[in-house]
Write a structure and sequence with these properties.
It contains 16 helices and 14 strands. It is an alpha/beta fold and 501 residues long.
């Protein structure tokens, strides 16, 4: 996620020729026939035959009224459907990743789809070559699956710079994806199917808002699955005058420090002991200390610095130097500095070597570097060789340019300056008495820590009987907890129990 909530300066407007070529390219993509193939996968003791369809969905929405009714984007989808099944008997799940700027390959080929990229359980990078294999833990056992690459990701393309700019933001993105869902359901005659959404990371930001937006256009969801929550940026963005993340990250810091053998005393006994000790300290002492600011002095201040150090594996002197406030990047560089290693953000079990000069420049995340190339190469090989998607167009798996240009401001200009869609989720739950929510968090995720997700869910503005429709489960890996096979198995088991419930 970004460290700011404002959009970057927009690029210079394109020429008339560039505009024309871009619109023509979108029209060509939308006119392109779906690329189809077939396969089968063994799930739940039975062989399940499926058809695969790769196609582009148009975005034609009232939000883009100046388009004159012409499509403003071609959005790429990959859909798996059970052969010879009745629509009313077969739920459908639309899935997308986050970033913003990420294509859907992570959920597609990491957990949900019939194929999976094999990676190491400990989060380290496997050697090439990379390929997909059958996924015996696929969610296809429970749903037909539609993987959506939002505008600006995958092969998806906006028809104009104006439309692209509108979709480079929280509300425009949601509006576009609501149209994609509606169009897909209509084109494939699936209005009789129970509909679910699954989003990861920023995909939970959009998923929470999309649940409410779909309700407004007549699509009632049966369920929403949120993997590694990011509905309230105030809980995860380290910025001046925002003390919330310092408190909410501390239990996750403690868990990671315990994993790397940097804790002493009772908190070092187990990951659970570390988390419990940190959670108790936050509630009993740390929040009050942060609130007091410079009024906290002398022995009281020293005691807080010492306890934060004990729970993070950092020296009390360093904690004091940071005014009792340890940021995520402080932690990444300081926890294993004596070993010359930095700690991963998206999977803090993973480490990488520092530069010989031991700088604190954030050049890469060891947690994502370990899986980005394996997923990229395996995904492109799978789509090209097995599914038959032949194109010279670039497939944008993870665009940091999109991330930098994103407009985090909500259209209603309300709130405290941090993007938030938790209000949308609370409203969707109140509007739809049948909507249920499954939340998954990794203990070693320092991008969207489990402890911040706990806080965000606890703040939802809905009565207790409504909030009872939310389940939160925890896993012993990072942001993409499904890269660890034991967690992949647990995630599917939790899903199956949730669906029955």
């Amino acid at each position: 996620m970004t460290e700011t909530t404002t959009a970057a300066t927009p690029p210079s407007p394109p020429s008339d020729d560039a505009r024309k070529r871009r619109r023509e390219r979108v029209e060509q993509l939308l006119a392109k026939a779906a690329v189809t193939s077939e396969g089968e996968v063994a799930l739940g003791g039975q062989l399940m035959p499926y058809s695969v369809s790769l196609e582009f969905m148009p975005v034609i929405s009232p939000a883009f009224a100046d388009s004159g009714g012409e499509p403003e984007a071609a959005v790429f989808t990959t859909a798996y459907s059970l052969k010879n099944a009745e629509a009313r008997d077969r739920p459908i799940c639309f899935a997308f990743n986050g970033g913003p700027g990420s294509a859907s390959v992570w959920l597609h080929l990491g957990a949900l789809g019939p194929k999976r990229v094999a990676v190491h359980d400990d989060g380290s990078m496997p050697p090439p070559p990379y390929a997909v294999g059958d996924n015996p833990h696929s969610w296809f056992e429970h749903f037909d699956l539609v993987f959506v690459d939002p505008p600006h990701t995958g092969y998806s393309l906006a028809a104009s710079e104006e439309a692209r700019t509108k979709m480079l933001g929280v509300d425009g993105d949601v509006e576009a994806l609501a149209e994609v869902v509606r169009t897909w359901l209509g084109r494939h005659k699936r209005w009789g199917s129970p509909v679910y959404l699954a989003g990861e990371s920023y995909g939970t930001t959009r998923g929470a808002a999309l649940a409410d937006r779909l309700q407004s256009v007549g699509v009632a969801l049966s369920g929403l699955i949120l993997v590694s929550c990011a509905m309230d940026l105030q809980s995860i963005v380290f910025a001046p005058r925002n003390d919330l993340p310092f408190a909410l990250f501390l239990p996750a810091f403690a868990c990671v420090a315990q994993y790397h053998g940097k804790l002493k005393g009772s908190a070092s006994a187990s990951p659970a002991a570390a988390r419990q000790a940190a959670e108790a300290f936050v509630e009993e002492d740390y929040l009050r200390a942060l609130h007091r600011g410079a009024q906290l002095e002398g022995k009281a201040r020293d005691r807080i610095a010492r306890r934060v150090g004990e729970l993070t594996g950092l020296s009390p002197a360093f904690v004091a130097e940071k005014n009792l406030r340890v940021r995520d990047q402080d932690f990444f560089f300081e926890l294993l500095r004596d070993e010359g290693k930095i700690v991963g953000r998206l999977d803090a079990r993973v480490t990488g070597p520092m530069a010989a000069s031991r700088t604190r420049d954030w050049e890469f995340d060891p947690g994502i570097e370990a899986i980005e190339a394996p997923y990229t190469m395996a995904a492109l090989g799978y789509m090209g060789h097995e599914l038959g998607m032949v194109t010279t167009q670039r497939y944008e798996i993870l665009s940091m340019e999109v991330h930098k240009q994103w407009n985090w401001n909500r259209g209603d200009a309300k709130g405290n300056g941090y993007a938030s869609t938790s209000g949308d989720l609370a409203r969707a739950l109140r509007r739809n008495p049948h909507l249920r929510v499954l939340v998954a968090s990794g203990h070693y995720d320092l991008g969207t820590p489990y402890s911040a997700s706990n806080w965000s869910l606890a703040q939802l503005d809905a009565p207790a009987e409504v909030l009872n429709r939310i389940e939160h489960h925890y896993y012993d890996a990072g942001h993409m907890m499904y890269t660890r096979e034991a967690d992949l198995v647990k995630l599917k088991a939790d899903l199956a129990a949730w669906l029955k419930g």
